User: Which sequence fits this backbone?
């Protein structure tokens, strides 16, 4: 289970180890004639998703591994040691970018969401560096996600370079490296379905891009993560 540290995973009730220091919650909740998946939020009519043994499964998120109503989503508690990062970046923010960067830190401090809407190449990534630094100073865990794999691949080396004092991980469906616990994660929005209350800061790049836009499961995953 160590490679699952910091994210949620499914365990059948019968194989749950009582006494382990893990938090857990039911994988699916019954709501009258419907059953609601707690990983992706989709609701299905019970008869349409019933298994021969009587329990229910979620067909919507089955590609991430089948979860059923006779099991729980388990989370291994973690702690992220605080690091006061010295950001490594050869450039400098313009006064206008600086203002946005400070506003983002201030919003984050007040636990408020922010939307930065600007054209490609206007330095959005560099404007989030200070917010990432602030959250890591506080011992928080950070996810930078995008619906687009190419955006994640492009972001990863830039984040790694800017925060060299700790390892970050690039995670997507067919990524070369398997999941492991890191305090900075770069991933596709789909990957957030594997997390529950795991991050103090989530940055979504290209929030208006397909397939995130209009996808209720991805939105559910984001809010849970
Ligand atoms: Zn589901």
Assistant:
């Amino acid at each position: 289970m160590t490679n699952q540290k910091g994210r949620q995973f499914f365990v059948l009730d019968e194989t749950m180890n009582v006494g382990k220091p893990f938090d857990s919650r039911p994988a699916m909740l019954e709501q009258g004639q419907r059953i609601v998946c707690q990983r992706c939020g989709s609701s299905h009519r019970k008869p349409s998703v019933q298994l021969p043994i009587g329990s229910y499964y979620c067909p919507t998120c089955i590609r991430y591994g089948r979860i059923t109503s006779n099991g729980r989503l388990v989370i291994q508690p973690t702690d992220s040691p605080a690091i006061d990062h010295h950001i490594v970046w050869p450039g400098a923010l313009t006064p206008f970018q600086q203002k946005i960067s400070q506003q983002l830190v201030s919003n984050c401090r007040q636990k408020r969401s922010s939307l930065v809407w600007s054209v490609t190449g206007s330095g959005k990534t560099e404007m989030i560096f200070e917010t990432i630094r602030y959250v890591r100073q506080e011992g928080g865990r950070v996810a930078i996600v995008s619906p687009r794999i190419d955006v994640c691949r492009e972001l990863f080396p830039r984040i790694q370079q800017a925060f060299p004092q700790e390892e970050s991980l690039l995670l997507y469906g067919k990524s070369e490296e398997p999941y492991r616990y890191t305090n900075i994660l770069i991933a596709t929005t789909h990957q957030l379905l594997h997390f529950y209350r795991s991050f103090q800061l989530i940055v979504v790049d290209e929030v208006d891009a397909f397939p995130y836009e209009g996808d209720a499961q991805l939105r559910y995953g984001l809010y849970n993560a």
Observations:
- The mean pLDDT is 92.
